[in-house]
Amino acid sequence: MHKRIFIMAVAAGVLAAPVAQADEALLKKHNCVACHQIDKKVIGPGYKEVAKKYKGQKDVAATLAAKVKKGGQGAWGPVPMPPNAQVPDEDIKKMVDYILSL
């Protein structure tokens, strides 16, 4: 029984890996990595720090997606995040969901 659960867990991880890689690729494609990294602050916060700050908050994905689209200032310090109006909403949703999953 334990072997079966282990095999199912490994299979789930293998199947989820391409999705995570695709969503991480979107962060690179839209140049988000110029200011953010997964696990460290650059100009803006690291993605893991963002996930930790907003963990468990209701409707946070929609709030963060709007912030990515319109830009923002003050939540992480004095440096503003520029608006990203050119990024498709579907890509923003995937990126935000990925960040919150970290």
What key phrases describe this protein's structure?
mainly alpha, globular, 4 helices, single chain, 102 residues
Give a description of the structure.
This protein has 102 residues and is mainly α. Helices cover 59% and strands 0% of the residues. It is built from four helices and no strands. It has helices at residues 2-29, 47-54, 60-70, 89-101. Helix 1 crosses helix 4 and helix 3 packs across helix 4 (89-101). It starts with a helix and ends with a helix. Residues 6-16 have low confidence and may be disordered.
Range of helix content: 55-70%
**End-to-end Cα distance:** 29 Å
Structural class: mainly alpha
Q: What is the radius of gyration?
A: 15 Å
- Could you list the spans in which at least 5 consecutive residues all have pLDDT below 50? 6-16
Q: Give the mean pLDDT.
A: 86
Elements, N to C (H/E): HHHH
Number of helices: 4
Number of strands: 0
Major sheet size, sense and barrel closure = none
Helices, strands, pairings?
Elements (H helix, E strand, L loop, with lengths): L1 H28 L17 H8 L5 H11 L18 H13 L1
Helix pairs in contact: 1-4, 3-4
In short:
The protein has 102 residues and is mostly helical. It has helices at residues 2-29, 47-54, 60-70, 89-101. It contains 4 helices and no strands.
